[in-house]
Amino acid sequence: MTANLSTTEIVGAGPAGLASAIVLARAGQKVVVHDRRKQAGGRFHNDFQGLENWSSEGNILEEFSSAGIEASFDHTPVSTGQVFDSCGQAYSINSSEPLYYLLRRGDAAGSLDNGLLSQAQDLGVTVKFDSHIKKQQGPAILAIGPRTADVIAVGYVFETDMPDGNWICFDDNLAPLGYAYLLISGGRGTVATCMFTKFKQQSFFLENTITFFEAKADLKMKNPKPMGGYGNFRLPGTAVQGGKLVIGEHAGFQDSLAGFGMTYAIRSGILAARSLLENLDYTILWKKELLPLLQTSIANRYLFNLAGQWGRRIALSRIAKGDARKALHTLYNPWWLSQLARPLAMYRYKTPLKDKSCDHHNCQCVWCEHGLALA
Length: 375
What we know:
The chain is α/β, with parallel strands linked by helices. It has a domain at 8-74 and 104-148 and 234-292: FAD/NAD(P)-binding domain (3-Layer(bba) Sandwich), CATH 3.50.50.60. It contains 10 helices and 16 strands.
């Protein structure tokens, strides 16, 4: 490793930025992390999210551990679930290994954000909140999160007496070009619609989502509180900006198919740290490790939109017949149909996937409420 006596500054204390900080600190580097918010996880509402475990051959937590990032946060392995198609037909999904790990995002004890923060601070990383740094001196990594909205999620976090479980529905009447989901664990729950278009109608689709899960999963909420978020997808040219390394959703590293982007974000943070420590070209690193997955996710998004509700129903029935993790692993890595569709998909999505139905005027969508307010 190349010795570096300078302090590395990281802008953004999300998973990507903290992952970089942890890897650098374990190598003996001085690291200062700046974040404009007042605490870790400030974008989120202590809602449940999934850390996918299917894009790589091995276990994702073991992959992170091998890079020096320990699972110092609550994480519940999920291997089974129920998926609905647009006709309300239920499919049981099963896997011999965890499909994903259920995490909480926000400032609560045990959340991913606080777990990574504590780990970084224990290693000597200085984290400065409410810090609006304008210029970085020396080596720097930029990780300020999504800057545009290509997908929004809107819903509720709540308390419940329901047993643990997870449900998802692919129906454009609940989540246009996306999916609605219900996650329950330990007396807490998150229900939301994840929408790729028609942002201005979020209230209508959320109401449909609640009604659907009340009927299909006997949804019962206590003390519901609104939650929302947004994400962006794009393929950067270099992911280097003014000589600074750009990681996570700031660079556009996201899963364009379903928005399971935490894995890509943390991986990009690890790669940026390796680039600085080993004097390696960051662009070459991420293009080798992430570009095939990112291109496949864009091709899969194109195929998902093209397939329509009928095509998605066929895909669900096939996934339900075997090991779901193996099926998703095949889907998320380059496969014959995604490779065939990729040129068309790249042409179709050479510009951001922004929703043309939202002009951000007289709008109360999640993007307008949260994104523009923080821009």
